[in-house]
């Protein structure tokens, strides 16, 4: 049975005898044979080569690294080394074996000499346990078996699922807080003084929302919109934004503690990736010279310029989305359908959000292909982790701009750079930029985030599972085992037991060295949505929590049943993703502070209450201090001052209309109130961010990264090692 265990399978097309590809394949297999590898060939529609490394290689590995896998992990009965370590070493040797033509396996695969290479999914006890207890199709709350995942997929995958489980667990607390804030907003749906004033403003005539066919309109027409806005934009939102800034810090600090405990149990806390890579290079080639660290300012500058070009393209796409919304609003207001005319702005926001989601999907593919093309990075990283870190930073930067550029415009620029009646800012001198609703712009941001998150967590997740499932079914149909024709009277030859296993593994979907990267990226982008603009969308943590319950199981199903086995990677942390998450935490403080200070009407309302409200004029406690706020926040415009080429509809009464801004009625310059509010916004932003960052620093200091139990374990280990050395040196005194 042991003789039929194979470390890796190489797959090749059947080439003509004597062809260049057949010669190259033979040279590579000969090099493996010289290193003591056992090779088995099975012919079907393709050529399958099973390879098994000699035991000498693994003994050298253990000797060089003092057997770092001495504890834990699943052990093959016949080998004193974990299966995951065995696969990792064999993969390294395969990838670094060079033919006499100075070609490695990667080069041969590019030239179609080999089509695929993969370790096998073994029908072993650990896999069956994971299929039964981890995939859990019927129970999304079933516990993850991190130790078993480690035994089958290696430390890198195990740490991903440990992190994802921990993130989802703590996300439950944030989801509960967001739900409470949202429900509290619903309870005050009809009680807001601001929304009451909008609903009762049946005599307030507003300026047209477009130039040609848009009529003047009554402020009371937007009563429902105003109530929805207050449901999101209230005092509870400010507290929740502060809570999420603290939550993000506590989550990361607690994760650092959990990670320290987990990797200490694995004996990997002080593991050195560089030492392991050097050891495997020496095992592969004793004459190997280590590649030196390199840094080139010229190469780094080239890479920086390429990244900046891509960011400029993404910002251009964000501008295109803005132009779409402006033109769509103008077209909808001229529609023959009454609903489209009345809800032109809202429909433009919603269709713009769907279009934004489509650009996210398309640009994700484009960016991935671009970064794959740049994978032989001009920066020349020395180790795999350095290469992965460089790849991660580039892709995350591109994804961040793709996902958030449109949201940043809505949050901080929409309705603030559009000018005013009589002097609008226009695109191509024709289309006016959008305006905010009199009750604020935060509802536009809420709609945009809700649509993008819902689409990403429904359509994207369904496609993420369906595409590999359909691809697997199609591969099984097209790659059935070849049946040998039988001659009359000929006995049927017993089928090689390896053939079915190798073919079934080959029919699974391909994985690459960055397959786990895609899962991490998806979750970190979700984490960004959950924290950065949570002040505008308090339901974001709840949506993320529900999504992750399914995400864990879908990832498990894909890895166990739809994808080939990943090459196990050893790791003692989640790599540069931790620094990315910490950067997102800081951006969350800045983003939420800006949303409350700029997008929300929280600051203007507070300034009105404490500076201009009726509460300051009379000692009447029964008067709501925000009474009169709407009238105070609307400026007056004389209809005769419209630009000559605009044709607004007839006014319902009078010669004036109102618009959202703080401007004088005579020369349309900013009023004193505008500068009061501007100063208050700036003061709040500085105060909020300093308080939030101080709280984050205190939380980071208060929660140690490494638990005392881990420190004490290392202390006891050092003491026992020193005691043991002393016992050998001075046996009579000990």
Automatic annotation (TrEMBL):
User: Which segments cross the bilayer?
Assistant: 157-186, 237-255, 301-327, 347-375, 395-414, 524-550, 574-598, 678-703
User: Pfam families, per this entry?
Assistant: Anoctamin (PF04547)
Q: Which GO terms label this protein's molecular function in UniProt? A: chloride channel activity
Q: What positions does the domain Anoctamin transmembrane occupy?
A: 149-713
Instruction: Classify the protein's membrane topology as the record does.
Output: Multi-pass membrane protein
Keywords carried by this UniProt record: Membrane, Transmembrane, Transmembrane helix
List the subcellular locations. Membrane
UniProt xrefs under InterPro entries: Anoctamin (IPR007632), Anoctamin_TM (IPR049452)
Task: Specify the domain of life of the species encoding this protein.
Answer: Eukaryota
- Principal localization? membrane
Q: Name one GO cellular component term.
A: plasma membrane
Query: What's the family?
Result: Belongs to the anoctamin family.
Output the PANTHER family linked to this UniProt entry. Answer: ANOCTAMIN, ANOCTAMIN-9
Q: What is this protein called?
A: Anoctamin
Q: What is the lineage of its organism?
A: Eukaryota, Metazoa, Chordata, Craniata, Vertebrata
